[in-house]
Amino acid sequence: MEQDIAVGIYGISKDFRLPSEKYYSLKSHIIHPFKRRSFQYQHALRDINVEIKKGEFFGIVGRNGSGKSTLLKIIAGVYQPTKGEIKHSGKLVPFIELGVGFNPELTGQENVYLNGALLGFSEKEIEAMYEDIVGFAELERFMGQKLKNYSSGMQVRLAFSMAVRAKADILLIDEVLAVGDADFQRKCFEYFKKLKKDKITVVFVSHNMEAVREYCDRAMIIEDSYMLDIGNTDKIAAKYQQLFMVDEAVPEAEAEARSDDRWGDKAASTTSITAKATPHEIIIKQIIEVKSELVRPVAGFRIRNGAGKDITGTNTKKQHKPLADFKPGQSITLTWSLPNILSDGKYTIDPSVLHDNEVTVSDWWNDATSFTIKRQRHLPYDIDPGFDVDIQVKQH
User: Fold this and answer.
1) 5-24+41-238 domain in CATH 3.40.50.300?
2) Residues whose CB is less than 8 angstroms from the CB of residue 330 and which lie 6 or more positions away in sequence, other chains included
3) 44-79 burial string, b = 16+ CB within 10 Å, else e?
4) Closest to 48 measured CA to CA, from 206, 291, 230, 185
5) Would you identify the CATH topology of the domain 264-373?
6) What is the DSSP letter of 162?
7) pLDDT tens-place string over residues 303-320
8) Rounded to whole angstroms, how far apart are CA atoms 202 and 6?
9) 243 vs 333, which has greater pLDDT?
10) What angle do CA 260, 214, 300 make, to 5 degrees?
């Protein structure tokens, strides 16, 4: 393994042997003492190969049951692979199941010391950081209570506050954002920013494509136990969304006509998207035509710069302006407006029409239209809010 590689995954396959029939009692074993039991094999992972560089924030995405969490547990050493090998350089800490090792019959304070010992800290080290742990978890008033009386959110906050204290070269994070309230998730995001700044290697499993796009340098997608693709996060996030189209009843001819630039079940589609930029405002007009009923649809767009990097975007759900159910034959016009604080350059707009879950796509259209911002100056940044400066010179 090369020196700049933190985690090497080489030819990893994992099979689980599942009995076709189970004996639940001693009587069954006595009655059928010599009966041969048959087994079925579940292929959880098949021939996964990837190298993750030191300091890289690497995402793993895929549908439920695809094998991504199994891969993370193999990297952590929880499972042994059926074939292949894992190599890693440096201390590895898994955040796979927050709260593992906690005792519900002990108080919050006692669990801090117990979990700290499991993470390798001495009693003096735990004492030194105890106030920070409790403050981060916001549980000062509850540390004398038994853990079994905590809500699930309180337990997760305490577990996460403990886990982030672990000193590691490689972190394995599995769906930590799927639990907890908005404040807890915000703390997770702040922690991720610190990890990126400190160049800690992170392997991150998530269904949250916004988090994958924002934090991950690269990502891979697993489908049906195989690695489907690997590359930049925009491409992988788009492929993840396309996976859910397999579950829709799309005619074969339509499925063949879909491309990487546009896809969806076409219950409702953006037929026109235009953008007009004034010195102070950008107006985006989106027209949607409806072919079949769509319950609680979500319409939106994103703006990308000339390099293809996401700049901004939103949708009707995020704006707290829900759309009424779409009916066949309807035409809906949305007029979006935003302050023109974009820097000099060319930008593209990708409109979308989604189902209520914001995962299943009705119409996603990459590079649907573009517009150009012309300024008298050119900044090497995407945002130009219009700066001013007051300069005062005093003679001494």
Assistant:
1) yes
2) 289, 290
3) bbbebebbbebbbbbbbbbbeebbbbbbbbbbbeeb
4) 230
5) Coagulation Factor XIII; Chain A, domain 1 (2.70.50)
6) H
7) 998 878 889 999 999 999
8) 10
9) 333
10) 55
